[in-house]
């Protein structure tokens, strides 16, 4: 069997494995019940803690004459803007009284950008994050984006609001005329990336404010990464709808697209490559509206914008109604997101073989707790994978050696049956059987290694644990395992060393595995160089962690091949000798 045929068979086997792996039949065997549709948590998406011991009450708002039937916002578009800066161990949030209480900035304390400033999640194009809209049949839609509320802290320009002990709250109160009042109370927790938003609508039975009360997010999530193309690629919007066990994703392109999604909605979110903002209504709502588009410009400067309004219907016959939310603004950390039990973690892009990537992340974290150096963790992980695959790799080397040793006999058969391909195949398979060669024996390690490589690719590109993780001791070279190991530039071209080293090890390994086949088959002579060139260009801009892993794996494979004894093929008796033996017996 030729090398090209073996490659085709390997690819076919990989496809077959994928089909079986993703089939309901196999998933039910390895994880019974996993294919059954799961019910989302729809009774209550979160529970508001009751131990908020520090609460700053909103001051009484001056009464307003009950003259208009419709809400009157004209008096609240002017005034003095004030801000509250909330500080916790995890983040710093900037709120404004504009928009009836809106979020202007989110700084994450433990995540830095390339210039060592803190990551900030609110887009510069955002307007009125967490502002509200009133929507209805017989009333003009209006929003609170330009209205100024009264803050329970007072009317000073800026207030600091540290939350380092117990949870604490403050409020904004917005009068809308005719006694109608909207009070927004924010509660913060020192050990969580979420905060709670309690919205109380008072005396809306006295005015006509529509049928739906919406809470808005604007601008998506601001770009934070050095590689803007990556940030743009991963920017999406998600919503968990109905009985789905995973969120629906919504992308954006240069055409503006507006949708009103009418379905039971448990949460709506926007994400960038590593961070997300999620609006989680206390009770699932009946619809949300989104506006999505990509700004003009190349991929290094363009932005994906996601504006969405989560709409909660309210009964105007009630004197007091509530529309409460939990708001998550933080990292796409798998364990943190999974702890909410609302399928947030399904926003993470694990790609194919996600189960392998999640398992690898678990191993990474387990080793990192003992050795806090992701470079060392990666080396140990490579050794672990190599040990697991060593028996298969040994079989691959043995099969390759046997194939190399059998090349003269195969060449003789090709010459002998060059005009009869059917006979050639029969005699070749017969020779394999007599020599104990499995022509597919060398394919299995390749079939298994490819899913691991794909899973590792997604692991290094999407998990925030490896964002900014340097190889301790080699920071001058590998400063971030999630990015290429660029050591300089030449004529504007980035110089990455690890792909070059990886390619060198790959050529060496390829030449060790197929020296005689290249000699007997000139068509195979350049195959190692072609394969290496393909991998070099593919891997050149890949994360340094992936290149390091594959380089280490190649080096260990070379060492294993060097240490493996050369097993000779069994000597076959020639037909002539068999006939002579039979004659001597007579």
- For the record, give the distance between the C-alpha atoms at the N and C termini, rounded to a whole number: 40 Å
| Percent of sequence in beta strands | 15-25%
> Main beta sheet, described?
16 strands, mixed
Kindly state the mean pLDDT as a whole number?
Answer: 80
Give the % helix.
Answer: 25-40%
Q: Would you tell me the structural class of the helices and strands?
A: alpha+beta
**How many β-strand runs?**
23
**Oligomer designation:** single chain
Question: How does the overall form come out from the CA principal axes?
Answer: elongated
Supply Rg. 32 Å
Q: Which spans of ≥5 residues are poorly predicted at pLDDT below 50?
A: 30-44, 47-69, 575-586
Question: Number of DSSP helices?
Answer: 14
Please explain how this structure is put together.
The chain is α+β, with helices and mostly antiparallel strands. 34% of the residues lie in helices and 24% in strands. It has 14 helices and 23 strands. The chain has helices at 3-21, 24-30, 228-234, 334-338, 354-370, 374-405, 407-416, 421-435, 444-462, 497-513, 515-520, 527-539, 544-563, 575-585, and strands at residues 54-55, 83-87, 91-96, 102-112, 118-120, 132-135, 142-143, 150-151, 158-162, 168-175, 181-188, 194-202, 212-217, 236-241, 248-250, 257-271, 275-281, 285-294, 304-313, 320-322, 325-331, 486-490, 493-496. The chain has a 16-stranded mixed sheet that branches. Strands 5-4-3-2-9 form a five-stranded mixed sheet, with no helix packed on it. A two-stranded antiparallel ribbon has the order 22-23. Helix 5 (354-370) packs across helix 9 and helix 10 (497-513) runs parallel beside helix 13 (544-563). The longest helix has 32 residues, at 374-405. The radius of gyration is 32 Å and the shape is elongated.
């Amino acid at each position: 069997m030729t090398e090209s045929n073996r490659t085709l068979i390997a690819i076919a086997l990989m496809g077959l494995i994928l089909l079986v792996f993703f089939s309901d039949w196999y998933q039910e065997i390895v994880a019974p019940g996993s294919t059954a549709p799961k019910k989302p948590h729809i009774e209550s998406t979160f529970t508001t803690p009751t131990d908020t011991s520090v609460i700053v009450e909103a001051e009484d708002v001056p009464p307003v004459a009950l003259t208009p039937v419709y809400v009157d916002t004209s008096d609240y578009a002017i005034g003095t803007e004030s801000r509250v800066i909330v500080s916790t161990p995890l983040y710093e949030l900037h709120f404004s009284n504009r928009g009836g209480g809106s979020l202007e900035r989110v700084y994450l304390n433990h995540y830095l950008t390339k210039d060592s400033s803190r990551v900030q999640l609110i887009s510069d194009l955002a307007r009125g994050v967490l502002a509200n809209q009133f929507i209805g049949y017989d009333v003009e839609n209006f929003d609170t984006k330009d209205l100024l509320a009264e803050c329970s802290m007072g009317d000073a320009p800026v207030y600091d609001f540290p939350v380092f002990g117990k949870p604490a709250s403050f409020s904004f109160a917005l009068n809308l005329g005719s006694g109608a009042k909207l009070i927004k109370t924010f509660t913060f927790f020192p050990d969580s990336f979420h905060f709670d938003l309690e919205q109380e609508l008072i005396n809306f039975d006295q005015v006509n404010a529509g049928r739906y009360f919406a809470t808005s997010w604007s601008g998506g999530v601001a770009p934070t990464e050095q590689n803007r193309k990556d940030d743009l690629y991963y920017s999406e919007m998600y919503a968990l709808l109905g009985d789905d066990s995973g969120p629906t994703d919504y992308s954006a392109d240069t055409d503006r697209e507006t949708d009103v999604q009418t379905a039971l909605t448990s949460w709506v979110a926007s994400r960038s490559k590593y961070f997300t903002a999620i609006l989680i209504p206390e009770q699932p709502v009946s619809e949300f509206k989104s506006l999505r588009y990509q700004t003009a410009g190349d991929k290094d400067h363009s932005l994906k914008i996601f504006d969405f309004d989560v709409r909660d219907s309210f009964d105007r016959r009630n004197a007091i109604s509530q529309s409460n939310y939990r708001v998550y603004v933080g990292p796409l950390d798998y364990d943190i997101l999974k702890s909410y039990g609302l399928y947030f973690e399904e926003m993470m892009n694990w790609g194919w073989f996600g189960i392998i990537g999640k398992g690898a992340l678990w191993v990474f974290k387990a080793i990192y707790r003992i050795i806090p150096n992701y470079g060392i963790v990666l080396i140990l992980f490579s050794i672990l994978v190599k040990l697991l695959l060593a028996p298969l790799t040994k079989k691959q080397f043995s099969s390759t050696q046997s194939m190399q040793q059998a090349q003269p006999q195969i060449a003789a058969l090709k010459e002998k049956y060059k005009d009869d391909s059917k006979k050639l195949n029969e005699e070749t398979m017969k020779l394999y059987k007599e020599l104990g060669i499995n022509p597919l024996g060398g394919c299995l390690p390749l079939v298994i290694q490819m899913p691991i490589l794909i899973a590792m690719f997604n692991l290094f590109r999407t998990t925030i644990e490896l964002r900014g993780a340097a190889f301790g001791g080699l920071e001058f070279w590998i400063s971030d395992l999630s990015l290429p190991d660029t050591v300089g530039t030449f004529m504007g071209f980035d110089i990455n060393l690890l792909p070059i080293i990886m390619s060198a090890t790959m050529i060496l390994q390829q030449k060790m595995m197929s020296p005689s086949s290249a000699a007997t088959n000139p068509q195979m002579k350049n195959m190692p160089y072609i394969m290496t060139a393909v991998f070099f260009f593919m891997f050149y801009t890949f994360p340094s962690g992936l290149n390091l892993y594959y380089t280490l794996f190649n080096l260990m494979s070379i060492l294993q091949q060097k240490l493996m004894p050369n097993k000779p093929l069994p000597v076959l008796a020639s037909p002539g000798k068999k006939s002579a033996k039979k004659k001597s017996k007579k």
